[in-house]
Write a structure and sequence with these properties.
- The complex is a heterodimer of chains A (380) and B (264).
- With 380 residues, chain A is of the alpha+beta class.
- Chain A has three domains: 119 residues, Butyryl-Coa Dehydrogenase, subunit A, domain 1 (Orthogonal Bundle); 108 residues, Butyryl-CoA Dehydrogenase, subunit A, domain 2, CATH 2.40.110; 146 residues, Butyryl-CoA Dehydrogenase, subunit A, domain 3 (Up-down Bundle), CATH 1.20.140.10.
- Chain A contains ten helices and ten strands.
- By secondary structure, chain B is of the alpha/beta class.
- In chain B, 29% of the residues lie in helices and 23% in strands.
- Classes of the chains: A alpha+beta (380), B alpha/beta (264).
- Chains A and B meet through helix 1 of A and helix 2 and helix 5 of B.
Chain lengths: 380, 264
């Protein structure tokens, strides 16, 4: 694996690994059980640069590359998928659009708050009636004097319960289909921005995923990101990068499950030998390890393409599809290897199993990814 | 105030150690190498001293090339520069050989204090720091849990814990102090620190650059020889005390503790 990484990439990987092992791993089971967002750890991560991984130094970022970014997401997710998700979403779909499409004033105003981790970012695209089909967005932002008045409802907002800055996708033109959607930056505390109850999810439970409502929420016109109507192209550009992060997250969860399965299968004795000695199980572990390796390599490839300035959409879609699918398979097999104990909350594999499942759904379902990949190969 | 930290790389404590075919060394396949944990305290203390007094923190490591990874980690934590001695001649160094190499590097540097971990957590000799101080003819205080440098930078005061009490020891600078757990809480390297570390100088030196005789270090210069390494015996399976009722179980347990374990 390491032959594809630079010395600096490896240093990043090692340092992130060390931090996660000591600060995150020991609390991951507990914060999952209690659905608790660990602000204390998040504050530490903010001080160490984890919330501005690729942002330029001038805006308080660490100026690392995409490969560094996914190595970090993989390490955090290996310890705790919910925190991996928090950091991935913040860096890719919240901070990146501001850096790539924001004006100098907008960047100066909001980027340092995000890169320091003082404010967490959230990306509000999904609505009750618009998920895979983003063109179904119904939220409206009506231009009035020097303000936009936003009304609408957002669902499944990752980091929603704790975010300080929300990117809201809303229609600025009701008649212009896909080209009528824009992105507005809304700060927590703005009158009319209502953070709803937390979702009771099956996995990534330490992430405060919530609904968000906008009720005559007024923001100045300066909060428009990019130009009017550019919303979906900004969203898709962000998701291209976001997907590499989710690929890395899914690979990290799968790696954690694989390591637990190996450890357990060497300890557990049945029929007089460690269960690892039974061929049926050793074959499973060989398959799992091969899949995890392939998933990591695909994520590294997508990230490397981006760092080299080459087209990476297709590679990123393939990496996300493959990694999330095998993450479900590998965590399922790890649970199977643990037998009844795997199904028990006393062991961490059931958490990996639940956490892996959602990676096939968010930031584009597996089915949407197949559609995107097929279109890339065969044309429309 | 110029501070030197001696750094060793050791196998991660999570690593499953296996003995190599020669029976005298450990197999280095699949080992994850990390900075010696006691050296992390030394690095942190050095950074804190620099924050207070200014100056430079120099990390000195002794080969092989992979040690650069741990030196870079220390640079990412905030140290200013690194020196690695990497040379075929140092393979097989005992503690004395390592101390000789470190002496050759450090004697010509400008330093006020040298910090080492109290021991490497791999072979646990815990003597390199002392040997180095002797060779440099400077005071040494080992196993520090607290370290203070006087305002004028002329002396160091160290707390050293012993069974049931604490020694407070003072020495004039320059001096060498070895770090014990509890001295401080090492910081994590920050991500921006990694980018800065990339640009910091890390010199690699050979034995010849240091004017050392190759015969005085490595296997050739070693005063001791490892004859054999053995692993601890595997832990035996636990015993489950049988019995139909709690009373019967308790009676059987008492019988076992008395007759077999011979504790009662």
């Amino acid at each position: 694996m390491n032959i594809f990484l630079s010395d600096k990439n490896r240093l990043v990987q090692r340092i992130a690994h060390g931090f996660c092992e000591i600060e995150i791993q020991p609390i991951a089971g507990k914060i999952d059980k209690e659905a608790h967002f660990p602000w204390d750890v998040v504050k530490k991560m903010g001080e160490l640069g984890y919330f501005g991984i690729q942002a330029p130094k001038s805006l308080g970022g660490a100026a690392l590359d995409t490969v560094d970014y996914i190595l970090i997401i993989e390490e955090i997710s290996k310890s705790c998928a919910a925190l991996g998700l928090c950091v991935a979403v913040h860096n890719s779909v919240a901070l990146y659009p501001l850096l790539a499409f924001g004006s100098e004033e907008q960047k100066k105003k909001w980027a340092p708050q995000l890169t320091s981790g003082n404010k967490i970012g959230a990306f509000c695209l999904t609505e009750p009636n618009a998920g895979s089909d983003a063109s179904g967005i119904e939220s409206e932002a009506i231009s009035k004097d020097r303000y936009y008045v936003i009304n609408g409802s957002k669902a499944f907002v990752t980091n929603g319960g704790v975010a300080g800055i929300y990117l809201i996708f809303a229609r600025t033109n009701p008649n212009n289909g896909n080209k009528g959607i824009s992105v507005l930056i809304v700060e927590r505390g703005t009158p009319g921005l209502i953070v709803g109850d937390l979702e009771e999810l099956c996995g990534v439970r330490a992430n405060p995923v919530s609904s968000v409502r906008l009720n005559d929420c007024e923001v100045p016109s300066q909060n428009l990101l990019g130009r009017e109507g550019a919303g979906l192209s900004i969203g898709f550009a962000a998701l291209d990068i976001g997907r590499i992060g989710i690929a890395a997250q899914a690979a990290g969860i799968a790696r954690a499950a694989l390591e637990e399965a190996i450890r357990y299968s060497k300890q557990r004795h049945q029929f007089g030998v460690p269960i690892a000695k039974h061929q049926a199980l050793s074959m499973m572990i060989a398959d799992m390890a091969t899949k995890v390796d392939a998933a990591r390599l695909m994520a590294y490839r997508a990230a490397t393409l981006r760092d080299k300035g080459e087209s990476f959409s297709q590679a990123s879609a393939m990496a996300k599809l493959f990694s999330s699918e095998i993450s479900s398979e590998v965590t399922d097999q790890a649970l199977q290897i643990h037998g009844g104990y795997g199904y028990s909350k006393s062991y961490p594999v059931e958490r990996y199993y639940r956490d892996a499942r959602v990676t096939r759904i968010y930031e584009g379902t597996s089915e949407v990814h197949k559609m995107v990949i097929a279109r890339g190969i065969m044309g429309n | 105030m110029n501070i030197i930290v001696c750094l060793k790389q050791v196998p991660d404590t999570e690593t499953q150690i296996s003995i190599a075919a020669d029976g005298k060394s450990i197999s280095t396949d699949n080992i994850k190498w990390v900075m010696n944990p006691y050296d992390e305290y030394a690095v942190e203390e050095a950074l804190q001293i620099r924050e207070k007094f200014g100056g430079e923190v120099t990390i000195v490591g002794v080969g092989p090339k992979r040690v650069t990874e741990s030196i870079r980690t220390a640079l990412a934590m905030g140290a200013d520069k690194g020196i690695l001695v990497d040379d075929q001649a140092i393979v097989g160094n005992d503690s004395l050989g390592t101390a000789r190499v470190l002496t050759a590097v450090i004697k010509d540097l400008d330093y006020d204090i040298i910090l080492c971990g109290k021991q490497g957590v791999d072979d646990d000799y815990g003597i390199v720091g002392s040997m180095l101080a002797e060779f440099l003819d400077i005071p040494q205080i080992s196993i520090a849990v607290k370290l203070d440098i006087s305002e004028d930078g002329s002396k160091v005061t160290v707390n050293r814990e012993v069974e049931g009490g604490t020694f407070v020891i003072e020495a004039p600078l320059p001096a060498l102090v070895t770090a014990q757990k509890g001295l401080n809480e090492p910081r994590y390297a920050s991500l921006p620190g990694i980018m800065k570390a990339k640009k910091k100088p890390l010199d690699v030196k050979a034995i010849a650059d240091l004017g050392l005789d190759a015969g005085s270090v490595g296997e050739a210069g070693a005063k001791i020889e490892i004859k054999e390494i053995t692993l601890p015996k595997p832990r035996q399976a636990g015993k489950i005390v049988e019995g139909e009722t709690p009373q019967e179980k308790a009676a059987n347990l008492a019988k076992f503790l008395h007759e077999e374990a011979k504790i009662l």
